[in-house]
Amino acid sequence: MRRGRGATGGGTAARPSVERRIRELVERYGLPPTADRSLAALLVLLEADPLAPTTVTDAAAAVDEHIADALVALQLPAVSGAASVADLGAGAGFPGLPLAIALPHAAVSLVESNGRKCEFLRRALAASGVANAVVIHARAEAWPAGTGRFGVVTARALAAPAVVAEYAAPLMRIGGRLVIWRGRRDAAAERSAEAAADVLGLKVESLKPVHPFDWAEHRYLYVMSKVRDTPARFPRRPGVATKRPLGAAES
C-alpha cells in the first residue's frame, strides 16, 4: 500500500506493516476469516479515492486511527453481540464499516446526511464486499423509519454527547446501548449528557477507558443504555438539538 494523504511522518517508521496489523486485529477480536481481505480493501480505497472524506488516508496510519479505533468497541459485550447497529454521522465509514465486517450477522445502517459522503460509503461497501450494511442518506433526527429498531447506536466525532444522545435515543430499543467515541474527559460535557440522558429515557452506564493501539492516548467509550421509552416529543426538528442542547437546558 502506498503512502498517501494523512501520513503521520516519522512516527510510522517503527509501526508494524499494515498487513501484520490487520492480522493482529483479526486475531485479537476473533474476526471472521474473510475480515482481513475486507479491511485491507477498505484501506486501499481510502488511499486511492481522492474524495475519501477523511484527512487520514495513509494505510499505515488509518489501520490504527480508523480501524483499530473502531474495533475497540468489540470489548463491549453489547457491541460484540449486536444484531442491529446504526452508525450516526457515518462519514468515511468509521466505526460502522469495520464493525459491519466484524459482525457479519448484524444489520448495520450507516446514517449520513451528506450526499457525497454517502457516495463514498457506497463505494466502500462495494470495495470491501460488505453485504450486511446499508447507507441511509438522512439526518438521524429526520429518519422515522429507524425509530426503535436498534440494539446498538454508535457515533464518533459527531457532536457533544448530549446532542448525540438526543439523535440516538429515538432509534434505540429498550435495553439498547449508545456508544460514543470520546477523547479527553470533559466534566461539563459529561454533566450535560447525564442530564439529557435522564430526559431521553437513557442512563449513563459507563465511561470505559480503551487503548486501541500502542500510541493512543485519552480514549474512552461513553456508553448509555435505554431504560425507558423516549418521550414522544423527540426527536426535535433537525438542527434544534445543536442550537438548544437538551442537557444544558435541563441542567
Tell me what you see in this structure.
The chain has a 7-stranded mixed sheet, sandwiched between helices. By secondary structure, it is α/β, with parallel strands linked by helices. The protein is built from 10 helices and 7 strands. It has one domain (16-250): Rossmann fold, CATH 3.40.50.150. The chain has helices at residues 18-29, 35-48, 59-71, 77-80, 96-102, 115-128, 161-168, 187-200, 240-243, 246-250; strands at residues 84-88, 107-112, 133-137, 150-156, 172-182, 202-209, 220-226. α1 (18-29) crosses α2. Residues 7-13 have low confidence and may be disordered.
Largest sheet: 7 strands, mixed
If strands are numbered along the chain, what order do they take across the biggest sheet?
3-2-1-4-5-7-6
Number of strand elements:
7
Distance separating the two termini: 49 Å
CATH superfamily: Vaccinia Virus protein VP39
Helix content: 25-40%
Mean pLDDT: 92
Query: Hey, roughly how much beta strand do the residues contain?
Result: 15-25%
Q: Taking Cα atoms only, what radius of gyration do you get, to the nearest Å? A: 17 Å
Output the CATH class name: Alpha Beta
Oligomer designation: single chain
Total number of distinct structural domains? 1
Q: Could you say which overall geometry the principal axes of the C-alpha atoms support?
A: globular
Helix-strand makeup class = alpha/beta
**What string, H for helix and E for strand, traces the elements in order?**
HHHHEHEHEEHEHEEHH
Low-confidence stretches: 7-13
Determine the CATH topology: Rossmann fold
Q: Given the structure, what is the number of helices?
A: 10
Under the CATH scheme, the architecture is 3-Layer(aba) Sandwich
